[in-house]
Amino acid sequence: MDMSNNSCEPSASTHPPPPPQVAVAAPAPAPLSRYESQKRRDWNTFGQYLKNQRPPVSLSQCNCNHVLEFLRYLDQFGKTKVHLHGCVFFGQPDPPAPCTCPLKQAWGSLDALIGRLRAAYEEHGGSPETNPFGNGAIRVYLREVKECQAKARGIPYKKKKKKRKINNQLKGHDELIKNNQHQHQHQQQQQQQPA
Ligand SMILES: [Zn+2]
């Protein structure tokens, strides 16, 4: 009698059955989006900043002044040249030579950063009412940075929508010209008609 196909053979039971072949793979954890991973990095950076304070600041103690200090602290890592009033390149978007004016965080970067940290604060259990990132003082600070940088760099910060609006205005203008020409032709035709 051949016993090789005996299902009670110990070696067979040590091998688990092969996994069923299915077309859809088991759901792997989705990789974080660029925004989500940036938000996580920002949150960790801010947490580290609070820990490094002397004395360390807990998240529950954190208020808008800590956030403002954090934003000013970040300026030392900035890469955006913001000309001082005395600089000859003040107000020039594309200066022809280097100058000694300080590098700072661009307003747009700070604005986006605050948005991410504001969301992260509430995701970590913070109350929207006490969210230091949503404080009016932060909005005022960001607006001041925006206006200051717009003047110093000669770059007005406009929303992308404006471009579209200008195009529409131009289009409208063209149509106005066409209509005027049409009216003009019409008038000429009327004038050409025998009285
Ligand atoms: Zn300068």
From TrEMBL:
Q: Where is this region: Disordered?
A: 1-37, 153-195
Name one cellular component (GO) term: nucleus
Keyword Electron transport on entry: no
For molecular function, the Gene Ontology terms on record are: DNA binding
Q: What are the Basic residues biased-composition ranges?
A: 156-166
Q: Ranges of Polar residues compositional bias? A: 1-14
The protein's superkingdom reads Eukaryota
Q: Where in the cell is it found?
A: Nucleus
GO biological process entries: mRNA transcription; response to light stimulus
Q: Where is the composition biased (Low complexity)?
A: 186-195
Limits of the ALOG domain: 34-161
Keyword set, alphabetical order: Developmental protein, DNA-binding, Nucleus, Transcription, Transcription regulation
Question: What family does this belong to?
Answer: Belongs to the plant homeotic and developmental regulators ALOG protein family.
User: Protein name, please?
Assistant: ALOG domain-containing protein
Species source reads Handroanthus impetiginosus
Organism lineage: Eukaryota, Viridiplantae, Streptophyta, Embryophyta, Tracheophyta
